[in-house]
Design a protein that fits this description.
The protein has about 90 residues and is an all-alpha fold. It has a single domain (about 5-80), classed as lambda repressor-like DNA-binding domains (434 Repressor (Amino-terminal Domain)), CATH 1.10.260. Helix content is about 60%, strand content about 0%. It contains 5 helices and no strands. The protein has helices spanning about 15-30, 35-45, 45-55, 60-70, 75-80. The longest helix has 19 residues, at about 15-30. The chain is elongated and about 55 Å long. It starts with 13 loop residues before the first helix and ends in a 12-residue tail after the last helix.
Length: about 90
């Protein structure tokens, strides 16, 4: 992954995007929960599932939602699919 494109999801594969998201969540998680095990217990998923997510980016969607809620970022997910009014210029 090219450093210049590090944060530009448009040019990344799905695997690269999931790894980048996990990499961004890790420091947020570490501020409140020192270990993966404590965080996983707090959000109600198994330690192995959460550890795999931080390592590979792989996680089920329902568990990902729990992760997002656990790092207090669920409001950002809500805005993802809001319909935006398209303006057509002639």
């Amino acid at each position: 992954m090219d450093d210049e494109l590090n944060n530009d999801f448009e040019f990344m594969s799905s695997v690269e995007i999931t790894k980048a998201i996990a990499k961004k969540i890790k420091p947020i998680r570490k501020k409140r929960f020192k270990t993966q095990e404590l965080f996983a217990k707090h959000i109600g998923i198994s330690y192995s599932k959460y550890a795999r997510f931080e390592k590979s980016g792989q996680i089920q969607l329902v568990d990902f939602i729990e992760v997002i809620k656990g790092v207090n970022r669920i409001d950002e997910i809500q805005g993802l699919f809001e319909q935006k009014e398209e303006v057509i210029k002639w």
